[in-house]
Amino acid sequence: MSNPRALRWLALMLIAMLAAVALAANLGAMTLSPRALWLAPLSDTLWQIWLNIRLPRVLLAVVIGMALAVSGAVMQGLFRNPLADPGLLGISSGAGLAVAIAIVLPLALPPLLLLWLPSVAAFLGSLAVMALIFSFSQLAQGSLARLLLVGIAINALCGAAVGVLAWLSNDQQLRQLSLWGMGSLSQAQWPMLAVCAAFILPSLLLTQLRARHLNLLQLGEEDAHYMGIDVRRTQRQLLVLSALLVGAAVSVSGIIGFVGLVVPHVMRFCLGSDHRWMLPGSALAGALLLLLADTLARTVVVPAEMPVGLLTSLLGGPWFLWLILRQQRGGE
């Protein structure tokens, strides 16, 4: 069914994201003007910086922003809870713990398999925590307070385990763990982007194909069943897809919080609650948000660089408090 208002919003966000990509690729410690790139030969240092440093980082920010925002939208729909978020419920921490294990206790694998190891480990860690959270949500019958308490407990346990691994690590591993814990795209390279996109892009497509099923799940499991949906199978599929999105993102960028919380709320306000429109809107808005945050992180303290996870937390923390206060007033 056509939705002219949603189409206008999606077109506007697509234009804004493309403009942000063009801007971000030329901003940094060294500003690269289009005129200078046009006049320089392909072998020039300016082109090497643009092709091998700036462009993969910009595209990685786009892909990871899409993954985090869409996973948050799916989780909020799946749990029927506006405060569901990969970071708050401990799913990002589970993925991060698996990556930390892969960093500190590496396996003797061929180089090609080692390239995929962080993504596979993060997927398994996020899937395990996602399944645990979903089981608790069934037992708690959607209780927000219990879900948040479970998320706090999982975050604490995973944080403690990562702390033990940091204590066991050497200097190089410790630095890698520290950067990963704050969230950063500074290690972006073309092979890393290829591995990340191989997980995320098909998962985004498969998630979009289940948007109608996600809409029906909002009616409740019993009503969705009478509408012809295999509820358990759909829930399992959405769990796996969300785990893939979160795991792939965390494996290359570390823990970047609140993108999956903030973006779906804004898109629900702009596009409505129909996931056929909200999911692509969340993907575009998540890409735009993380791209702008990463560009700011690269330029605000030049020549140093701020971890992008700190900026998203500065944005998402007040938003989360506002959501809790609004729900508190709504429950009175």
Automatic annotation (TrEMBL):
GO terms for biological process: siderophore-iron import into cell. It is a multi-pass membrane protein. InterPro entries: ABC_BtuC-like, ABC_transptr_permease_BtuC. Keywords: Cell membrane, Membrane, Signal, Transmembrane, Transmembrane helix, Transport. Its main location: membrane. GO terms for cellular component: plasma membrane. GO terms for molecular function: transmembrane transporter activity. CDD domains: TM_ABC_iron-siderophores_like. Residues 1-24 form the signal peptide. It comes from the Bacteria. The keyword Ligase does not apply. The chain crosses the membrane at residues 55-75, 87-109, 115-135, 147-168, 188-207, 238-263, 308-325. Belongs to the binding-protein-dependent transport system permease family. FecCD subfamily. This is Iron ABC transporter.
